[in-house]
Automatic annotation (TrEMBL):
Broad EC category: transferase
Function: Catalyzes the conversion of uracil and 5-phospho-alpha-D-ribose 1-diphosphate (PRPP) to UMP and diphosphate.
Organism: Collibacillus ludicampi
GO biological process, one term: UMP salvage
Entry binding sites for 5-phospho-alpha-D-ribose 1-diphosphate: 79, 104, 131-139, 200
EC number(s) on file: 2.4.2.9
Statement: the UniProt record of this protein carries the keyword Nucleotide-binding: yes
Family statement: Belongs to the UPRTase family.
Residue sites binding uracil per the record: 194, 199-201
Any Gene Ontology CC annotation: cytoplasm
GO molecular function, one term: magnesium ion binding
Catalyzed chemical reaction(s): UMP + diphosphate = 5-phospho-alpha-D-ribose 1-diphosphate + uracil
Name recorded for this polypeptide: Uracil phosphoribosyltransferase
HAMAP family tied to this protein: Upp_B (MF_01218_B)
């Protein structure tokens, strides 16, 4: 069974409150999502391996550490996942970015991939899949399956808010994928929205309705 990490850091919780607030406008919403993603990336990358190097300081030679050549990739689920990418890139500027887009077929209700462009060496990379909302879990579970079909072997899922149902779905389908969230909310409503959640993440990020 995969692990679920809920970040209780005060800065993350504080910013999440303003992200939830219906009075928060598009500009501030976008900035806050980026900031929270950056703070979450700090924790998500905690297990990156280090190697020792020598570095000459102005005083002497120090034995110090650098990240041991790990290849990382960020894969936002279009479109709302895009809002988390720049925050992560601030901490990991060399990461490659793939994109995956899904829509739900109105008849079968199954997720259909409409766009996918990934780094060519996807099987060698540790991927962080981003999406602010893990609601029914259908989109994230399908996106992860599509990534695995293309060879991805190491995947973490990073969301702002999850529902218990969404977590259960991803854990059932992908027991190798750990999930990182800022909050787990109460439930889903009849329209598949997270309650209390933050509303429609894509619309709030991009100012659409
Ligand atoms: C939202 C959200 C997730 C999905 C979550 O995207 O960003 O991708 O819904 O719902 P699920 O867990 O029930 O699948 P949406 O489909 O609204 O598209 P958008 O990002 O283009 O707004
Ligand atoms: N997608 C959203 O943007 N918000 C939700 O609460 C559920 C799905």
């Amino acid at each position: 069974m995969s692990k679920v990490y809920v970040f209780d850091h005060p800065l993350i919780q504080h910013k999440l409150t303003y992200i939830r607030d219906e009075k928060t406008g598009t500009k501030e919403f976008r900035e806050l999502v980026e900031e929270v993603a950056m703070l979450m990336a700090y924790e998500v990358t905690r297990d990156l391996p280090l190697e020792e190097v020598s570095v000459k300081t102005p005083v002497a030679t120090a034995t110090s550490k650098v990240i041991a050549g790990k290849k990382l990739g960020i894969v936002p689920i279009l479109r709302a996942g895009l809002g988390m990418v720049d925050g992560i890139l601030k901490l990991i500027p060399a990461a490659k970015v793939g994109h995956i887009g899904l829509y739900r077929d109105p008849e079968t209700l199954k997720p259909v991939e409409y766009y996918c462009k990934l780094p060519s060496d996807v099987e060698e990379r540790d991927l962080i899949v981003t999406d602010p909302m893990l609601a029914t879990g259908g989109s994230a579970a399908a996106a992860i399956s599509f990534l695995k079909e293309r060879g991805a072997r190491s995947i973490k899922l990073m969301c702002l808010i999850a529902s218990p149902e969404g977590i259960e779905t991803v854990q059932k389908e992908h027991e190798d994928v750990d999930i990182y969230v800022a909050a787990i909310d109460e439930r889903l409503n009849d329209h598949g929205y997270i309650v209390p959640g933050l509303g429609d993440a894509g619309d709030r990020l991009f100012g659409t309705k």
